[in-house]
Amino acid sequence: MPLLKKKGSIVIYTIFILSVLLAVVLSIYYKKHHYNKDNMISKTDFFFDTVITITLYYPDEEYLIEQALSLCEAYEKLWNKNIEESDIARINRAKGTPVKVSDETIFLLQRAIHYSELTEGSFDITMDTVGQLWDFTSNAKGVLPDKHNITQALKHTGYEHIQIKDNFVTLTDSQTQLDFGALAKGYIADKLKSFFVSNNVTSGMIDLGGNLIVIGKKPNQTNYILGIQYPFHAKGEPIICTELHDSSLVTSGVYERCFTYQNKNYHHILDSKTGYPVDNNLLSATIISSSSLEGDALSTSCITLGLEKATQLIESLSGVEAVLVDQDENIHITSGLVIENHMIQRKS
């Protein structure tokens, strides 16, 4: 009997040890791949002054997200105006002399000029000339720039100062400054999607802080449900949701990067005519389209244009829709959308 008990104890102990080892192995596997119950892999990082998250469903390898994050790092170095050797920093400090830049920088500058022409100058990447006078960071103390300084800086803005010849860029005004903030994330989101699709990813989401782009549908073949931020409410609280697949959703709003001074909201989207934050009837503009670059530029443009002109602009474009929230928190949608059961959808 004692021998049997001893053998039984050994068996039980062995099973216990094997169970622990199996649990450890599974735990390591889980952590390495970041899988959840839906066989999803998701990673978060910080680029472009914002938190970004990339989520893929049923990926073959985690290295795809790692490569995507490497792409983000490369674009950060290419276009961050605060990185000394970026294309934008080199253009800005050239003081009017030609600067040789990458093909992608040329492309993005050409798109910037296109949207400036489309909006008659309301969209303008040279507004950073004035923007540098403002502090819209989270620790802003509500100090307004000197009005004279704004007036003087405005004299050096205007997309017409950007000249392109082959791969050389010249700012004809030595005091003009560029910022890709209203374009870069959209372009990068499109590039990341193309990268994933070329690697046979059929389901996933790219979130570049206000720029959302979804790949295909969810693994169960249902659409993604994306929320549109409720202006001035808690982060992540939607004013309404939309159902999308294989689309981009980009939102710009006057409730981010802002401060209050004498009961008035001052935000980072500047009026190209006054140099002060845009003051019209819009709190946010969300663009639904196939291209995140297009959505990036148009969401900013809509805020600068106001409800009526923004609606006219979007209605004139093919394959683009908008959700506009006015100062009374009323929701306005363009003609290709419909609201059903508190959900925005494209018309069939």
What this model shows, in words?
- The structure is a single chain.
- By secondary structure, the protein is of the alpha+beta class.
- The chain is 35% helix and 26% strand.
- The protein is built from nine helices and 17 strands.
- It has an eight-stranded antiparallel beta sheet. Strands 8-9-17-16 form a four-stranded mixed beta sheet, with no helix packed on it.
- β11 (258-261) and β12 form a beta hairpin.
- The radius of gyration is 25 Å and the shape is globular.
What is the average per-residue confidence, as pLDDT, rounded to a whole number?
Answer: 89
Given helix and strand content, the structural type is alpha+beta
Q: Report the sheet-strand fraction.
A: 25-35%
Strands, count:
17
How far is the N terminus from the C terminus?
77 Å
Biggest beta-sheet profile? 8 strands, antiparallel
Radius of gyration, rounded?
A: 25 Å
**What oligomeric arrangement do these chains adopt?**
single chain
Order of helices and strands: HEEHHEHHHEEHEEEEEEEEHHEEEE
**Which ranges are low-confidence, i.e. pLDDT below 50, for 5 or more consecutive residues?**
1-37
Question: What percent of the residues sit in helical stretches (DSSP H or I)?
Answer: 25-40%
Strand arrangement, major sheet: 1-2-6-7-10-13-14-15
> What is the 3D form?
globular
* Separate helix tally: 9
